[in-house]
Every structure is written in C-alpha cells, then in structure tokens.
Amino acid sequence: MITLPLLASLVLVQDTVPLAVIPQPVNLTPGTGMFTLTAQTVIWTDRVSARLGHQLAELLEPATGFPLDVQVGGTRTGSRISLRRDTSLKRLGLEGYRLEVSPTRVLIRAPELAGVFYGIQTLRQLLPPEIFRDAAFDGVRWTVPAVTVEDWPRFPWRGGHLDVCRHFMPKEFVKKYIDLLALHKMNSFHWHLTEDQGWRIEITKYPRLTDVGAWRAQTLVGPYTEDSTTWVFDGERHGGYYTQDDIREIVAYAKERFVTVVPEIEMPGHSQAAIAAYPWLGNTGDSVPVLGRWGVSANILKPSDSTIAFYQDVLTEVLQLFPGPFIHVGGDEALKDQWKASPWVQARIKELGLANEEEMQSWFIRQMDAWLAARGRRLVGWDEILEGGLAPGATVMSWRGTEGGIAAARAGHDVVMAPGSHTYFDHYQSQNRAAEPLAIGGFTPLEKAYAFDPVPAELEPQYRRHILGAQGQVWTEYIKGPKQVEYMAYPRMTALAEVLWTPPAQKNYEDFVGRLRTHLRRLDILDVNYRPLGP
Ligand code: TNX
Question: What separation in angstroms does the CA of 504 have from each of 24, 26, 131, 263, 455?
Fold first, then answer.
C-alpha cells in the first residue's frame, strides 16, 4: 500500500527533473528555489504583448484548469507572469528574449514580440511535461525552477517542409505540424503545394487545376522502380486540396505562432497535374493523367508566353494569400527531353538568343523572378535553378548536397541548406529497414541529423552571412498520412531545431539525447507518433 507521505514525494519528483529545453538556450543560469503557478497567478502584459498574454493563458488553462487573469497595464503585485517588449534589449536581435524566473514571478522580455513568443515556448518546457495535456490534471504541482535565460537563434531561416501532393494531408494536421515547429522555435513552413501527382491549392481563375489536377485515379503500390512492367496500382482515387479560405486560416494560424508560410508552386518540371488540367501548358498538347507513380515525369511546361502568363495569374492569387517575403517556384528535376524534341521550343531558344535547354529553364525562372521582384517579393528555388544561370534575385535551396548552396553564396545569393544527406526526413532512420515502414531509401539517423552544420567548412567567411539557415524535408511518396509524417519527422526535427538555434560550440549529442528523453514525454502527451529512440 502506498502511504500518503510517499505519494507526496512522488508528486514532488517533478521538482528535481533536470532542465530539458529543446533547442538548448544560449545562456541558461539556474537560480535557487522555484516559482509555483496557481489559480491566483496573474498574467501581466504591456499593451503590445496583450495578445501573447491571452495566448499564454490559453496554453496554460487546459492542463492546469486555471482560468488565469490577463491584466494589460496597471500595477504588478503578487504571483505573476509578466510579458513585456523591451527595446533596451536590442542586442538580443529580432527573435531573442530574456526570461527570469524567481519564486515570486516569471518575467519575459524581448526587443520584439517574436522573442516574447519564444520566451513563452521555453517557459512551457520548464513546466512539468503534463502542462501539454488538454484536460485538467491535478497530479503535479505547476512549478518552474528559478532560472535566468538569455537566448537568441543562430539562423533566421529555421524551416520545416511538408509535401502534401504525393499524399494529401488534412488541414487540421497541417496546423498541428506548424504548432510543433513553433514549439521548437522553428519559424518557417515550406508548403509544397503542386506536383505531378496532385495540385493542392484552389486558384479561382483556373478551376480545373483542382477539379482535375487535385485527383489521381490510382497510386503505385510498393517501391518505385523505373521498370514499368513491375508497376502495380491500387485502383483507388486519391486527392484533395485546400480552398483559399483554408489557406487563409492556416496562414493566420501560423502567423500567431511566428511561423511564415512559404508556398511552393513548381515550374517548369513536376507540373504534370497542371498539364492534366490544361493540356496546352504542355509541349505535346496530349492529354495526360495526374501521375499515379513516383519518380520524375517527362512532362514539362511549354515555355510559351501563355504559360508564363498562366503561372503569373496563379502567382497573383498566391501573393494575395501568402504575405511572406518568399515564394518558392520549384525548379528541380525538370527533364528537358520534350524541349529537345520540340521544334517549337528549339525555335524559341533561338529566338530568345539562348544557348541550350538549361538556359531556357533559366529564362523561365527569370520571368518569375522579375515579376515577383516588381511586386516586392523574393523568389526561392531548388538548386537546379543555378544551371543555365541564376536569376538575379533568386535565393537557392540546396538539396543535392551543399555544393549548389556554396556556389550561390559565393555569387552573392542567399541560401537555405536542405541537403538530402542530413535534412531529408523521408529517409530511413535505421539500418534495420525491415523493422521500419517502407521509405524512399537513405539512412539519416537522429545523430546524423544532429551533426549537420548548415555552414559548410569550405565556405569562405565573407560569404557565410548568405546562409540563411536550413530546412527539414518531408516528401510523402511513401508517407500516406499524418501519423507517418510524425514518425518520420520526429524526433529528427527536434535535432534540426537545435542545429538551427544553438551555437555550435554548445551542441552536445549526449546532452541532447538526455533532454530529449524528457521532451519525448511532452510529445507523447501531444499525441505525436515519433520514432522511439534506438538503432
Ligand atoms: C527529389 S528534393 C525531389 C522530390 C522527391 C524527393 C524524394 C527535390 C527538390 N525533388 O520531388 O520527393 O527527391 O526524396
């Protein structure tokens, strides 16, 4: 039988749990004693932080059952959590914050509101993991160890990518994915919205993009090989898309969490779903189906003025939905065979004074770059956009290793590192493939994801400022739904979050795994289907 004093000490075990914040803060100094959150605690904010005060109250209420008072302005006394913008802390940068916890109060100050938000994320991780429950729980005391934290990120682009084309992901899950990014102080969501296998964004001017392009008749079963005689299809219609209203909702949801959404509209390759909807976008004029298999498609957009105009119309609607600075136009894996075979394209190449098909692709991307720049936006594309000459305003996302990123940085362009070797979370996490769900290949265990450095050693110091950061990719050919996305993305995304936030000299894999063990309890409570630790 458990006696009462023993129960009490069990409850108190929480008080001795080591600090387990991911990503590891830059400076963290433990103090003495602890703050205890009670129903009497008041959340005090200045005027500009009022929204964040209410957001914090909403985060704390479900598990604690405390409907905490949010007081904007006025005097501060008693047990309180204070949130305040403090321009004297400018040295902490656009996203940094200072968090002080003493037995009487919690104080979060930051030069910008993003920092206040990140201070709140750290505070959540200093509370018992049960704070993440979504119904009242009275099995713990809601304590926060006394501590002083000064913290800011290493990189401004801390991204997570999600392919919703190979398999459609419901809106509610997209929000959860964003929520998880924000919990790990990630600030960019790359939403891969168009593909050979599906077009997922409503464009009111061109309804067939979703009427036709969002649906495929069948999907390949099992692993893809180039030998078409081995292909077996499931015969099941698959698809879905986001209405413009859905998108506005998700973008607003992300904004409240200081996450910028970067939409990707692929061109000129990976566009078969668009060609299925409007065959004149293609080179042959033939009708093609929305692709039901993986691998690269031979279908590529016809580089005509009407195709350019069509895609600029699409981007016009995209710009209205996505207020962020960056628009991703793909550019990867565009097979040029149809361009080589087309007399029309060959004449076009000559007429434009271009040397070859690579320059034709660069011309295509340049039309978009200039068009976006004229509207105050920035183009980002996969590293193939370097071939045939980089558009003047382009930012490069380097996926085929880091070489493309290095070349772009040396040419004075900004870069987001996304190499397959370290940041492709569709790759296997174990060498024991039989024990894992079917994946595309590769081997990227947690330790390798953690070891990644977005700044290549060979990049000369004067170009390093062009490395904006990095991004984790979740391509979904073999990932059929949300639970499997979580399995592939977590815990590797937590490792990447630390890569992107914590100074390299402070990274330590053993220490990270120690904190991760506590952190996984949080993810359990949040119902994240992460892959358990182990080989
Ligand atoms: C290459 S990465 C692609 C994607 C695939 C991925 C699979 C990139 C820019 N293109 O279309 O889904 O490999 O890992």
Answer: 11, 10, 30, 30, 10
User: Best substitution site from 299, 475, 485 to test ligand 1's pocket, by max atoms within 8 Å of Cβ?
Assistant: 475
43 found inside a domain: yes
Query: Which amino acid is present at 320?
Result: Q
CA torsion, points 60, 64, 65, 71, in degrees to nearest 10?
-40
Asked whether residue 258 falls in the same domain as residue 383, the answer is: yes
Report the mean per-residue pLDDT for the chain.
96
Is 30 in the same domain as 96? yes
Show the domain range for 89.
Answer: 4-151
Are the CB atoms for 391 and 369 separated by under 8 Å?
Answer: yes
Question: Which of ligand 1's atoms lies nearest the C-alpha of 296?
Answer: 11
> Tell me, what CATH number does 476's domain have?
3.20.20.80
Q: Is 484 helix (H, G, I), strand (E, B) or coil?
A: helix
For residue 521, give the nearest of 136, 24, 37, 18 by alpha carbon. 18
Q: Is 170 exposed, middle or buried (0-12, 13-18, 19+ CB in 10 A)?
A: middle
Radius of gyration (Cα) for the chain, nearest Å?
25
Q: Ligand 1, atom 4: nearest CA belongs to which residue?
A: 475
**Which atom of ligand 1 approaches the CA of 332 most closely?**
9
Question: Could you identify the atom of ligand 1 that is nearest to the CA of residue 333?
Answer: 10
Q: Which residues line ligand 1 (CB under 6 A)?
A: 332-333, 382, 399, 424, 426, 440, 475, 477
Confidence category of residue 9, pLDDT binned at 50, 70, 90: very low
Checking if the pLDDT of 3 tops 70, the result is no
Q: Are residues 135 and 165 in the same domain?
A: no
Does the global pTM surpass 0.90?
Answer: yes
Count up the domains in the chain and report the number.
Answer: 2
Sign of CA dihedral 490, 493, 496, 498: negative
